[in-house]
Design a protein that fits this description.
Elements lengths: L7 H20 L4 E3 L11 H5 L8 H4 L4 H6 L8 E5 L4 E6 H14 L5 E4 L3 E6 L7 H4 L5 E3 L3 E5 L3 E2 L2 E2 L1 E4 L11 H28 L1
Antiparallel strand pairs: 1-2, 2-7, 3-5, 3-6, 4-5, 4-10, 8-9
Protein backbone atom coordinates (compact mmCIF):
# COMPACT_ATOMS: atom_id res chain seq x y z
CA UNK A 1 0.00 0.00 0.00
CA UNK A 2 1.04 3.62 -0.26
CA UNK A 3 3.46 4.68 2.42
CA UNK A 4 2.29 7.68 4.44
CA UNK A 5 5.91 8.85 4.47
CA UNK A 6 6.13 9.10 0.68
CA UNK A 7 6.81 12.64 -0.57
CA UNK A 8 3.77 14.42 -1.97
CA UNK A 9 5.35 14.34 -5.43
CA UNK A 10 5.46 10.54 -5.37
CA UNK A 11 1.91 10.25 -4.15
CA UNK A 12 0.68 12.68 -6.79
CA UNK A 13 2.50 10.76 -9.52
CA UNK A 14 0.91 7.53 -8.34
CA UNK A 15 -2.53 9.15 -8.32
CA UNK A 16 -1.99 10.40 -11.87
CA UNK A 17 -1.03 6.91 -13.01
CA UNK A 18 -4.17 5.43 -11.43
CA UNK A 19 -6.32 8.09 -13.06
CA UNK A 20 -4.75 7.59 -16.48
CA UNK A 21 -5.29 3.84 -16.30
CA UNK A 22 -8.91 4.31 -15.21
CA UNK A 23 -9.62 6.70 -18.08
CA UNK A 24 -8.02 4.40 -20.63
CA UNK A 25 -10.03 1.40 -19.49
CA UNK A 26 -13.26 3.39 -19.29
CA UNK A 27 -12.82 4.55 -22.88
CA UNK A 28 -12.51 0.90 -23.89
CA UNK A 29 -15.81 0.14 -22.25
CA UNK A 30 -14.53 -1.52 -19.11
CA UNK A 31 -16.79 -0.85 -16.08
CA UNK A 32 -14.16 0.72 -13.83
CA UNK A 33 -14.85 2.23 -10.43
CA UNK A 34 -12.86 3.62 -7.51
CA UNK A 35 -11.80 1.33 -4.70
CA UNK A 36 -11.42 2.22 -1.04
CA UNK A 37 -8.39 4.40 -0.33
CA UNK A 38 -5.69 1.96 0.86
CA UNK A 39 -4.35 4.61 3.24
CA UNK A 40 -7.58 4.36 5.24
CA UNK A 41 -7.57 0.56 5.56
CA UNK A 42 -6.55 -0.95 8.88
CA UNK A 43 -5.98 -4.50 9.97
CA UNK A 44 -8.97 -4.20 12.32
CA UNK A 45 -11.14 -5.13 9.35
CA UNK A 46 -9.39 -8.21 8.03
CA UNK A 47 -11.55 -8.68 4.96
CA UNK A 48 -11.11 -5.07 3.85
CA UNK A 49 -7.41 -5.27 4.65
CA UNK A 50 -6.94 -8.25 2.40
CA UNK A 51 -8.39 -6.69 -0.75
CA UNK A 52 -9.72 -3.33 -1.98
CA UNK A 53 -13.47 -2.75 -1.88
CA UNK A 54 -15.64 -0.24 -3.76
CA UNK A 55 -15.36 3.28 -2.39
CA UNK A 56 -19.03 3.93 -3.14
CA UNK A 57 -21.93 1.90 -1.79
CA UNK A 58 -23.87 2.45 -5.02
CA UNK A 59 -21.09 1.06 -7.19
CA UNK A 60 -23.50 -1.06 -9.24
CA UNK A 61 -25.23 2.13 -10.38
CA UNK A 62 -21.89 3.55 -11.54
CA UNK A 63 -21.24 0.83 -14.09
CA UNK A 64 -20.97 2.27 -17.57
CA UNK A 65 -20.17 5.78 -16.35
CA UNK A 66 -18.62 7.96 -19.06
CA UNK A 67 -14.84 8.12 -19.04
CA UNK A 68 -14.88 11.86 -18.33
CA UNK A 69 -16.81 11.34 -15.10
CA UNK A 70 -14.74 8.32 -14.12
CA UNK A 71 -11.67 10.54 -14.27
CA UNK A 72 -13.04 12.76 -11.50
CA UNK A 73 -13.14 9.82 -9.08
CA UNK A 74 -9.35 9.79 -8.95
CA UNK A 75 -8.74 13.50 -8.47
CA UNK A 76 -9.26 14.22 -4.79
CA UNK A 77 -7.41 11.34 -3.14
CA UNK A 78 -5.73 8.13 -4.10
CA UNK A 79 -8.06 5.23 -4.73
CA UNK A 80 -7.40 1.74 -5.89
CA UNK A 81 -8.76 0.89 -9.33
CA UNK A 82 -11.48 -1.76 -9.56
CA UNK A 83 -13.39 -3.24 -12.49
CA UNK A 84 -16.77 -4.88 -12.13
CA UNK A 85 -17.07 -8.41 -13.49
CA UNK A 86 -19.99 -10.20 -15.10
CA UNK A 87 -20.83 -7.67 -17.81
CA UNK A 88 -17.77 -7.05 -19.99
CA UNK A 89 -15.36 -9.51 -18.47
CA UNK A 90 -14.99 -12.27 -15.89
CA UNK A 91 -11.96 -13.35 -13.90
CA UNK A 92 -10.80 -16.63 -12.42
CA UNK A 93 -8.71 -16.19 -9.27
CA UNK A 94 -6.14 -18.88 -8.48
CA UNK A 95 -2.96 -19.38 -6.49
CA UNK A 96 0.27 -18.16 -8.04
CA UNK A 97 1.55 -21.74 -8.37
CA UNK A 98 -1.49 -22.86 -10.37
CA UNK A 99 -1.34 -19.56 -12.24
CA UNK A 100 2.25 -20.14 -13.34
CA UNK A 101 1.41 -23.63 -14.56
CA UNK A 102 -1.61 -22.37 -16.50
CA UNK A 103 0.36 -19.45 -17.94
CA UNK A 104 2.95 -21.87 -19.35
CA UNK A 105 0.19 -23.90 -21.00
CA UNK A 106 -1.37 -20.77 -22.47
CA UNK A 107 1.97 -19.63 -23.88
CA UNK A 108 2.36 -23.03 -25.51
CA UNK A 109 -0.92 -22.52 -27.36
CA UNK A 110 0.28 -19.18 -28.70
CA UNK A 111 -2.74 -17.43 -27.19
CA UNK A 112 -1.73 -15.85 -23.88
CA UNK A 113 -4.51 -14.48 -21.69
CA UNK A 114 -4.43 -11.24 -19.72
CA UNK A 115 -3.21 -12.03 -16.21
CA UNK A 116 -3.18 -9.83 -13.12
CA UNK A 117 -0.98 -10.67 -10.12
CA UNK A 118 -1.72 -9.47 -6.59
CA UNK A 119 0.83 -9.15 -3.77
CA UNK A 120 -1.06 -11.72 -1.71
CA UNK A 121 0.05 -14.53 -4.01
CA UNK A 122 -3.15 -14.68 -6.04
CA UNK A 123 -3.47 -14.40 -9.83
CA UNK A 124 -6.46 -13.31 -11.91
CA UNK A 125 -7.08 -14.71 -15.42
CA UNK A 126 -9.35 -12.34 -17.37
CA UNK A 127 -11.84 -13.81 -19.84
CA UNK A 128 -15.05 -13.10 -21.66
CA UNK A 129 -18.22 -13.40 -19.58
CA UNK A 130 -19.35 -16.94 -18.78
CA UNK A 131 -22.55 -18.38 -17.32
CA UNK A 132 -20.69 -21.09 -15.41
CA UNK A 133 -17.26 -22.60 -14.78
CA UNK A 134 -16.27 -26.28 -14.97
CA UNK A 135 -17.05 -28.37 -11.90
CA UNK A 136 -13.35 -29.19 -11.58
CA UNK A 137 -12.69 -25.53 -10.87
CA UNK A 138 -15.86 -24.77 -8.92
CA UNK A 139 -15.13 -27.60 -6.48
CA UNK A 140 -11.78 -26.12 -5.47
CA UNK A 141 -11.88 -23.86 -2.40
CA UNK A 142 -8.72 -22.09 -3.59
CA UNK A 143 -10.26 -21.09 -6.92
CA UNK A 144 -12.72 -18.19 -7.11
CA UNK A 145 -14.86 -17.18 -10.07
CA UNK A 146 -15.51 -13.45 -10.30
CA UNK A 147 -18.66 -13.13 -12.38
CA UNK A 148 -21.88 -11.19 -11.93
CA UNK A 149 -22.04 -8.85 -8.94
CA UNK A 150 -18.32 -9.06 -8.22
CA UNK A 151 -15.21 -6.99 -8.91
CA UNK A 152 -11.43 -7.24 -9.00
CA UNK A 153 -8.52 -4.84 -8.49
CA UNK A 154 -6.47 -3.77 -11.49
CA UNK A 155 -2.96 -2.33 -11.81
CA UNK A 156 -1.56 -0.16 -10.41
CA UNK A 157 -3.76 -0.48 -7.32
CA UNK A 158 -2.02 -0.47 -3.93
CA UNK A 159 -2.68 -3.75 -2.16
CA UNK A 160 -1.40 -4.67 1.31
CA UNK A 161 2.40 -4.67 1.08
CA UNK A 162 2.67 -4.11 -2.64
CA UNK A 163 0.95 -3.08 -5.85
CA UNK A 164 -1.26 -5.06 -8.21
CA UNK A 165 0.53 -5.58 -11.53
CA UNK A 166 0.12 -7.21 -14.93
CA UNK A 167 1.79 -10.56 -15.57
CA UNK A 168 0.48 -10.41 -19.13
CA UNK A 169 -0.35 -6.87 -20.24
CA UNK A 170 -3.37 -5.88 -22.34
CA UNK A 171 -1.10 -4.96 -25.26
CA UNK A 172 -0.06 -8.59 -25.65
CA UNK A 173 -3.55 -9.70 -26.56
CA UNK A 174 -4.64 -6.58 -28.40
CA UNK A 175 -7.46 -5.89 -25.97
CA UNK A 176 -9.27 -9.00 -27.17
CA UNK A 177 -10.42 -11.02 -24.19
CA UNK A 178 -9.93 -14.77 -24.61
CA UNK A 179 -12.97 -17.03 -24.66
CA UNK A 180 -13.86 -18.09 -21.14
CA UNK A 181 -14.22 -21.75 -22.10
CA UNK A 182 -10.71 -21.85 -23.57
CA UNK A 183 -9.10 -20.42 -20.42
CA UNK A 184 -11.21 -22.65 -18.19
CA UNK A 185 -10.01 -25.70 -20.12
CA UNK A 186 -6.38 -24.70 -19.65
CA UNK A 187 -6.92 -24.11 -15.93
CA UNK A 188 -8.50 -27.56 -15.60
CA UNK A 189 -5.46 -29.09 -17.30
CA UNK A 190 -3.11 -27.12 -15.06
CA UNK A 191 -5.05 -28.21 -11.97
CA UNK A 192 -4.88 -31.86 -13.04
CA UNK A 193 -1.12 -31.56 -13.47
CA UNK A 194 -0.74 -29.91 -10.08
CA UNK A 195 -2.76 -32.65 -8.40
CA UNK A 196 -0.78 -35.36 -10.20
CA UNK A 197 2.49 -33.85 -9.01
CA UNK A 198 1.18 -33.67 -5.45
CA UNK A 199 0.11 -37.31 -5.57
CA UNK A 200 3.49 -38.38 -6.90
CA UNK A 201 5.23 -36.42 -4.15
CA UNK A 202 3.09 -38.06 -1.48
CA UNK A 203 3.87 -41.50 -2.89
CA UNK A 204 7.60 -40.77 -2.88
CA UNK A 205 7.42 -39.43 0.67
CA UNK A 206 5.52 -42.48 1.90
CA UNK A 207 7.94 -44.85 0.17
CA UNK A 208 10.90 -43.12 1.78
Amino acid sequence: MLDANWPDSWRNAFRIELRAEAIGLAWRGWPVMPGANPDSITDEDDLTWRRPVPAKDNWRELLGTHAHEAATWFNDRTHSLLVATGTVLDAIEVSDELGKRAARLLRATGHPAPIVAMPNGRWLFLTTVADHIPAELADQATIQWHGADSYIPLPPSPFQLGVVHWRVKPEVWGWQLPAAAAVHEVLVRALAGEQADLTAHLVETTAA
